[in-house]
Amino acid sequence: MNMIPWSVLLFLCVAGSHAMVYDTIVVGLGSAGTTAASTLAQAGKKVLALEAMDRVGGRVNTVPFGDGLVELGAEWIHGTINSRVYETAIANNIDIVNQTLDFQFLVSDGSPADTKLISELMDFAFQVIDDPPPVPEPLGQYVTRRVNEHIKEKYPQIANDTHFIESFLYCMKLGMEGYESSDNWNDLTTFSQYEELDGHQHASWHRYGYKTFFELMLNTYNNGPGYPNLDIALNKEVSRITWPRQPAEDAVVSCSDGSVYRARSVIVTVSLGVLKERHNTLFSAALPSEKTTAIKIMSMGVIGKIILSFEKPWWPKNMTGSTFIWKAEDRKSIPKEDIWTSMMSGASVAMGTSNTLTLWLCSEAAKLVETLPEDVVKAKSMEILRRFMGRDTNIPEPTAMLRSNWYKNPYTRGGYTYDNILTPQYPNAREDLGKPLLDSAGNPRVLFAGEATNRQHYSTVHGASETGYREAMRLLNNSKKI
Ligand SMILES: Cc1cc2nc3c(=O)[nH]c(=O)nc-3n(C[C@H](O)[C@H](O)[C@H](O)COP(=O)(O)OP(=O)(O)OC[C@H]3O[C@@H](n4cnc5c(N)ncnc54)[C@H](O)[C@@H]3O)c2cc1C
Ligand SMILES: *[C@@H]1O[C@H](CO)[C@@H](O)[C@H](O)[C@H]1NC(C)=O
Ligand SMILES: *[C@@H]1O[C@H](CO)[C@@H](O)[C@H](O)[C@H]1NC(C)=O
Ligand SMILES: *[C@@H]1O[C@H](CO)[C@@H](O)[C@H](O)[C@H]1NC(C)=O
Ligand SMILES: *[C@@H]1O[C@H](CO)[C@@H](O)[C@H](O)[C@H]1NC(C)=O
Description:
- There is one protein chain.
- By secondary structure, the protein is α/β, with parallel strands linked by helices.
- Among the domains are: 22-59 and 207-300 and 412-481, FAD/NAD(P)-binding domain (3-Layer(bba) Sandwich), CATH 3.50.50.60; 117-180.
- 34% of the residues lie in helices and 20% in strands.
- It is built from 14 helices and 22 strands.
- The protein has helices at residues 6-18, 31-42, 84-91, 115-129, 139-154, 162-180, 211-218, 272-282, 289-297, 328-332, 363-369, 374-389, 429-434, 461-481; strands at 21-27, 47-50, 62-65, 68-71, 76-77, 97-98, 103-107, 203-204, 230-233, 238-242, 251-255, 260-268, 283-284, 299-300, 303-309, 321-325, 344-349, 356-362, 400-403, 417-418, 437-438, 444-448.
- Strand 10 and strand 11 (251-255) form a beta hairpin.
- The longest helix is centred in the C-terminal third of the chain and has 21 residues, at 461-481.
- It is globular.
- The relative contact order is 0.19.
- One 2-acetamido-2-deoxy-beta-D-glucopyranose is lined by residues 80, 98, 199-200, 203.
- InterPro entries: Amino_oxidase, Flavin_monoamine_oxidase.
- This is Amine oxidase domain-containing protein.
- Residues 32-476 form the Amine oxidase domain.
- Residues 1-19 form the signal peptide.
- GO terms for molecular function: polyamine oxidase activity.
């Protein structure tokens, strides 16, 4: 055992013996944690929520920018039917806007894109993803093969145009890596268990901001009073969670600032990236091997945003998004240190402002951009914008820039999880990750929620919320039984 200074020991004894015992401590106030905490609080439980960051929301982060609000993390409600997120908005009379994302294709040398051909190929590629091969294989490899076959069959006149095919597949690769938050589209599997919700796929909180979802759940919207039996502590990094083995024992949660809290149960909602980095020290006793295996074999990549604001919008009024088509020769002429700029997949118009544009990055590029100096990122981003969008327009300098840092952030360590090539071998990894740790009487005492634990709806805010509800209900069901 490590030596513990006597003052800390004394503090532990004092805190331990006199502090109140909560029904449940929720670790993390992202979508999963906020849902769990508010569900339990509404059911009358005494709840403490501990959040390491100085804000609620986790991988949702709405910030004032431009002439309104922008989202550094999640932006859309992906599917409105049976979405806990959409239903929360509607139940509170918030008018959600269905954003039409009509992406125009722009080519890296400024030449006009063959929009009809590219759209048809893209539709085909997405259909192919929904038509997986009998034996799972890496997604990139599969899409490449099927697209090549399709071109030979349907467009024989371009079948030998290797430059065009390469630039199209590179665009698909960036698109898939960004969409799935995967570091490589060949680490994605064709055997994905993801299920889309029905309804509109890009419903937006626009000028309300995604943060409104959290305010609604916590009953703090429009200066609401919150819940009297829910205590929230921000800037509270949890460093250790003990798993009570005996029914009479409490769970003990220690924080890096030395504070210690007790509860009958703990719901852990930290991301897979955080679990990968810290599960060894975060839990006492160590986690069972089925859980550590799940943590090891599952993956979470990175996606990133660079958001630029301008005096006023200079892009076409009807533009909602642009997809960048990189010609191989243009891409290869980019200096080595700027390779990340050739990994920008496009730009989109955000609905919480009228004067900002969002540039999208994935994988290594997203990681790198988090570490580069501000002026470099700004100057290079403008170069890319001017290359793709500045042919007929004199693009002015931006008034400000914001960028995400989901990889660098020690409390997220990435974008979101995806089904990787090991998924066919471990189809139950997400369930294993979400299984509660039980005491000797079989009661759930340390429970797990978060997008990573949702087999069908991982990688989304609604999926994360479902898992928070699931674990709150597990506790409520269990307490009814006793
Ligand atoms: C750039 C980006 C764009 C996205 N776009 C969309 C989108 O358009 N639509 C969509 O549905 N989803 C989107 N997502 C995914 C979505 O944001 C996540 O799936 C969801 O928010 C995850 O919620 P969660 O509660 O599982 O985890 P998190 O939000 O990560 O919450 C976990 C919380 O735990 C806290 N924590 C971590 N460690 C500790 C500790 N030691 N002690 C205490 N607290 C700790 C963290 O600070 C965090 O607040 C996007 C994500 C990113 C990064
Ligand atoms: C592709 O082949 C056709 C004949 O089938 C030929 O006319 C055309 O020039 C070739 N294009 C390229 C890019 O090689
Ligand atoms: C958005 O789309 C959903 C589902 O398709 C629909 O139910 C809803 O009414 C639409 N909202 C608006 C404001 O049109
Ligand atoms: C926008 O309008 C222009 C000019 O009217 C048109 O050429 C273009 O196709 C439109 N773009 C979209 C994405 O609708
Ligand atoms: C809790 O009980 C409800 C109603 O019986 C059930 O639908 C749900 O699956 C249970 N949840 C858990 C996690 O046990």
